[in-house]
Specification:
- Helix content is about 35%, strand content about 25%.
- It is α/β, with parallel strands linked by helices.
- The strands form four sheets. The protein has a seven-stranded mixed beta sheet. Strands 15, 16, 17, 18, 19, 20 and 21 form a seven-stranded mixed beta sheet that branches. It has a five-stranded mixed beta sheet with strand order 10-11-12-13-14, with no helix packed on it.
- Helix 5 (about 180-195) packs across helix 9 and helix 9 (about 285-290) crosses helix 10 (about 310-320).
- The longest helix has 17 residues, at about 370-385.
- The structure holds MU-OXO-diiron.
- MU-OXO-diiron (FEO) binds near residues 77, 79, 81, 145 and 218.
């Protein structure tokens, strides 16, 4: 493969991983992913920005086969999908120095056993000249790890943003198309950045002063429309939740399913947008994405032994980890002879700063009186949502 030109003296060394289906042995990748390294060539020095997952190192080195000299390896992030091939890069280019911040240096020494004398430490805002090309380092801690940074190439107005603004999307297109990249970006944001929304907000404010023509992230295509990308991130990270309820459920004998259907239908009649997720086909990314803008989360669960269904437990645990914006939560479900499903779910979500709305748990198949309680829950949710943002606004 030949490096793909983005702009003057800036090249993409993107390694697509089309058939990877799971990240971190956890996150489904319906559209694969890519590990993006970049090459910036000054009149005096050449910099490689990040590397590739070691599993795909051969593809990275295929891009580099005609590259005689690398002076600097800019390490934005120590997670191995980007840093894992740096030791191999240093073997091929022994004179190269790894340029990064002190925290990332510490991680790279610990995780990859790179020796201290291979590093040049840079401060936030510090610059490095390659000869007619100026790299400015921009700390972006807690995109999801504490050491992450980006680089702004002043002359070409390119922001190399690392995981920030990335997408798990393997594609042959170098540049993103808004309608194609939107969902993979949202999925990626939801899976790893949603818990760090306040940091994302600060980073967006920090980046506002830069004149950015291209955003070159570490996953997925390059963005030639930075305004669009910044605006959807602002929407996901900063704006108030939407008039939307996520109803995530599992049913064993149909009783919980009846409650869920009643709730969904009554919410829709009251103008509340609903995302109904059957946890029987659990897709962590889909669940995460649904939570980005929902004002209410309702878990629907039958009782297994004395507690919630294990898939409902997993969904609640995931929501707790992801810390979405939701302001209200509730539980609906059923039991055969008893149990503590509601109390167990409530104990699983301490990170959600949400008001718990009156749950509806019924014994066996719901009666008309039980369904009326579901109607009341729908009334409460619709009333609470009167101050929320209309569905789909800004998206
Ligand atoms: Fe793509 Fe946090 O690594």
């Amino acid at each position: 493969m030949k490096p793909e030109k983005i702009t003057n003296d800036v090249y993409s060394l993107r390694v697509n991983h089309f058939n990877r289906r799971l990240f971190d042995s956890l996150i489904p990748l319906p559209e694969g992913t890519s590990y993006n390294a970049y090459l910036v060539k000054g009149s005096e020095k050449t910099a490689l920005l990040d590397s590739a997952d070691p599993e795909k190192a051969a593809a990275l080195f295929d891009y580099l086969k005609d590259e005689k000299k690398i002076d600097y390896v800019i390490a934005h992030h120590a997670e191995q999908d980007h840093s894992g091939s740096i030791p191999l890069v240093l073997e091929k280019y022994p004179a190269a120095k790894v340029v990064t911040n002190p925290k990332c240096k510490e991680f790279l020494m610990t995780h990859l056993h790179i020796q201290a004398d291979k590093f040049i430490e840079v401060k936030d805002g510090e610059t490095l000249s390659l000869g007619g090309k100026t790299l400015e380092f921009v700390y972006l801690p807690w995109v999801h790890w504490p050491e992450t940074m980006g680089t702004y190439l002043r002359e070409e107005k390119v922001l190399f943003s690392c995981d920030f603004f990335g997408s798990h999307l393997a594609t042959s297109a170098l540049f993103s198309e808004e309608h194609v990249v939107y969902e993979p970006m949202k999925r990626y944001f939801a899976e790893i950045m949603m818990p760090f929304r306040s940091n994302i907000k600060s980073h967006l404010e920090k980046l506002a002063k830069y004149d950015i023509k291209f955003i070159a992230p570490s996953h997925g295509p390059v963005h030639g429309t930075p305004k669009f990308v910044m605006e959807i991130y602002r929407e996901w990270a900063v704006s108030e939740p939407h008039n939307k309820a996520v109803v995530a459920y599992i049913s064993m004998h149909g009783s919980t399913y009846m409650l869920v259907n009643r709730l969904v239908s009554r919410l829709q009649e009251r103008g509340v947008c609903v995302e109904k997720l059957n946890l029987d086909q659990f897709d962590e990314g889909r669940v995460a994405m649904s939570l980005v803008d929902a004002a209410t989360i309702v878990i629907g669960t039958p009782t297994v032994l004395t507690g919630p269904h294990p898939k409902a437990v997993y969904a609640a645990h995931l929501a707790n980890l992801l810390r979405p914006k939701a302001k209200y939560v509730s539980v609906i479900g059923s039991y055969g002879w008893g149990g503590r499903a509601v109390e167990t779910i409530a104990g699983l979500i301490p990170n959600l700063k949400a008001e718990v709305l009156k749950p509806v748990m019924v014994k066996g198949m719901p009666t008309e009186a039980d369904l009326k309680l579901v109607d009341e829950l729908a009334d409460t949710i619709a009333e609470k949502h009167k101050t929320t943002v209309p569905c789909g606004a800004g998206a």
